[in-house]
Amino acid sequence: MEFLLSPREFTMIEHTFHSEEPLVLESGQVLKSYHLAYTTYGLLNPDKSNAIWVVHALTGNSHAAEWWEGLIGDGKFFDPASHFIICVNLLGSSYGSTNPLSVNPDTGQSYFYDFPQLTPRDLAASLEALRIHLHLSQIHTLIGGSLGGQVALEWAVELGKKLKNAVILASTAKTSPWVIGFNEAQRMAIESDPSWGSHTPEAGKKGLETARAIAMLSYRHPGDLKKKQTDTEEKLEDFRAASYLRYQGQKLAKRFNALSYWTLSKTMDSQDLGRNRGGAVAALQCIEARVLAIGVNTDLLFLPEESQFIAENSKRGQYKEITSTAGHDAFLIEFEQLSALLTSFYQE
Ligand SMILES: CC(=O)SCCNC(=O)CCNC(=O)[C@H](O)C(C)(C)COP(=O)(O)OP(=O)(O)OC[C@H]1O[C@@H](n2cnc3c(N)ncnc32)[C@H](O)[C@@H]1OP(=O)(O)O
Ligand SMILES: N[C@@H](CCO)C(=O)O
């Protein structure tokens, strides 16, 4: 077969999975039908042993080779020339999968504020439905950071021996009150927007800018802002740190919507790997895969000790740490360290 595209273009393919099977949620609610947008890079080999499943973070999308370009791509650690890489836009997110702006089959109208609560375990169940649909009998590596790490952990428990390696970055087995507090402050900002409550895609957009500004302070570290945002000239106001946060808020509000953000922040809050499983340790003990938990030394949101807890309580777990001034977002930035940590993990 003559491929008309260049090797790289050939390897990236966009798909949509339409599930007609209902998704029964942890809350007891039912998502009657849903669709998942997902991107694949590379080809599954004959024995299906080269599947790398990537789970994106809160505002991520399925284009993993874009936002993780230092880790995924031609000549990178996960190379489509030898790996089959798949990344799904998580349920609730506005990058192509079913979300609050999607049409509710019961009403024929968009869900808006009637969209059901989703937990990381619900999102993992939707990924499992796609895995079954793809007849993917085994997964070489399941890798995700932050919210993506929460979903990956939930799925790793259910996958049993079908999963060989789980790589969990800057995440947790049970969301801390600290993270819940940050997310609640962000939802308060969104809810304070006068447009919140309206049935328009723009609802809460201005509040989302403030929510992102709050979030950025948890995703970075004082040393990071000191390095990048210290003012050189003497001034009384209009500081660099102020314009940076305003900019980041505007930048997110241009590419994401407040309803998805509000929904997925509640998803992040609800993570409890041990729920109905006898506690987090018992749940971690059910993971058959090798587990690499990677913390960030300056992460003020998902603390390094939460990654250490995952490693210490998994049957085949180990902990490694990224050293960075970037804080929580280092898992999206420190590609050289990530590649080195992964190299040593797979060599063992
Ligand atoms: C397109 C997508 O991302 S799709 C979704 C997938 N993305 C994800 O999963 C992660 C979402 N992305 C992120 O969290 C962040 O962008 C990261 C962590 C990946 C990258 O962070 P960094 O590269 O450190 O960028 P940083 O946070 O320093 O911001 C740099 C930006 O702020 C701007 N900036 C820096 N300082 C200031 C300032 N004082 N005032 C105004 N703007 C400023 C820069 O010009 C730059 O703008 P640009 O992004 O338009 O080029
Ligand atoms: N800053 C990243 C990670 C958050 O955990 C995002 O916006 O998705």
UniProtKB/TrEMBL annotation:
The keyword Acyltransferase applies. The keyword Ribonucleoprotein does not apply. Residues 52-333 form the AB hydrolase-1 domain. It is found in: Cytoplasm. It is an enzyme of class 2 (transferase). This is Homoserine O-acetyltransferase. Transfers an acetyl group from acetyl-CoA to L-homoserine, forming acetyl-L-homoserine. Homodimer.
